[in-house]
Amino acid sequence: MTDGPRSDASENRERTTPEEAFSILGNELRVEILHELATEARSEETVAGGPGLTFSQLYERVDATNSSRFSYHLQKLTDTFVRETETGYKLTYAGDKIVRTILAGTYHERPEFEPVELDGMCPSCHETTLRATYEEESLVVRCTACELQLLSFLLSPAQARNRTPTEIMHSANRYVRDEYSMALDGVCSECLGRMTNRIRPGREPVPKTHLSVHSCEQCGYRVTAPVELCLVYHPAVVAFYWEHGTDIRDESFWKLFEYINSDRWRTECLSADPYEFRVTMTVGDDELRVEVDETLSVTSVRAVETRVINDETS
Ligand SMILES: [Zn+2]
Ligand SMILES: [Zn+2]
Q1: ipTM for the whole complex
Q2: CATH number of 16-103
Q3: Which of 23, 47, 66, 182 is surrounded by the most beta carbons within 10 Å?
Q4: Where are the domains of the chain?
């Protein structure tokens, strides 16, 4: 398959300015119209987005005092949040996104989270009990001994709704795992824009580590992780642990800090320009040596059996 040129987003970006778009939403009836179009699009009977709602169907569903007032507000939404098709009115991409964000409670709810203790390992003091707490709108995993922060990300109200703290942490792990997998593939989990990475040495109190910082060229979203974490997605690593009775894909991200910071994994920085690392993983008598370059692509995999074979004559 041949590839086409990269699109220039600036050519079609200015349908309306962000300021204009948000000012359009400042009306109860307009938000109600968006909700009704979303409800229709998500009804189980609707196939592939469906035909949408006609002017009169939509008018009947909302609380409008008269049709000219309704028409005025619908017109305001049209193009930016609503599009008129031959079969009816439907949400645009922007309309769909805004309704989902409203339903997720982003603008009007505050998540609740009771602190929970987790097994893992602090990269600084090697304490194995960590604690997850809700701090300034973020879910933060810290060491219980030295307070070092291992993980932090914004907790959405939808994520906390109808879940116990343990279930929230399960969803959090799922999220960071998939988010990092996408970042490694150059895709931003927030906007799907292009992501690139750079490696930087760790800072106090863990100066010996190396971190990979992945940044989105579009929305500026950033994901940072120790370089070794890229390996938990590699088939040779998954197979190595699988053969030793562990599904490493099931280990939580905070538990993986125990792998990185104990003698289970030994990381050597082979070169700093360009960066190159070798990670030696040990299970029992077996070792797996994996090398990665600065884009975190695996360049070499070698399985080594280190068991000393007994000399039968001795
Ligand atoms: Zn610590
Ligand atoms: Zn992005």
Answers
A1: 0.92
A2: 1.10.10.10
A3: 182
A4: 16-103, 116-227, 230-305
